[in-house]
Design brief:
By secondary structure, this protein is α/β, with parallel strands linked by helices. It has five helices and eight strands; from the N terminus they run E-H-E-H-E-H-E-H-E-E-E-H-E.
């Protein structure tokens, strides 16, 4: 059974910073990119695979498949889950995956989003989903780099 060691919201999903820094520091050897669009886009998968460290495996699954198959599909693996949005993270939590904490690492600036940090901008809907996650006693860790100081999660709500 796979153990979920890290869950990250990053609208870029898998990229060099995640593959170089977070995977190693969190002790993951399996990267699950949980995204309905990327699960079908072979070109994007090839680009993301460039960031996969040689000691890790990457799978590109839909949100539904991740909630259904992750914990039973990989024996003795330590999984990092990457999602694009707070809504997708909430779907994983709501489905009952054993997630202890959610890292909010990168959500780009778009209209109607408020700056939280230099790399995290949240809209009202994002805040609602993060609050729902937090209400399930799952901590929210807002930092882009592993060595960054996390901001107080209460600043999100």
């Amino acid at each position: 059974m796979a153990e979920i060691v890290f869950t990250r919201i990053d609208d870029r999903l898998l990229h060099g910073q995640v593959g170089r820094d977070w995977v190693k520091k969190e002790g993951a050897d399996l990267i699950v990119v949980a995204n309905d669009i990327i699960s079908e886009d072979r070109d994007q998968q090839k680009l993301m695979n460039i960031a996969t460290p040689i000691f890790a495996e990457t799978v590109f699954w839909t949100i539904d498949r991740t909630t259904r198959d992750l914990e039973d599909s990989f024996e003795d693996k330590k999984a990092m889950i990457l999602v694009e949005s707070p809504e997708d993270a909430y779907k994983l939590v709501e489905a009952g995956l054993d997630i202890k904490s959610v890292n909010v690492g990168n959500i780009r600036s778009l209209p109607n989003k408020e700056k939280i940090t230099d790399n995290v901008y949240l809209g009202e809907e994002d805040k609602v989903f993060l609050k729902k996650i937090n209400d399930k006693n799952i901590s929210i860790d807002v930092r882009t780099l592993h060595e960054d100081k996390a901001i107080d999660e209460n600043a999100l709500f």
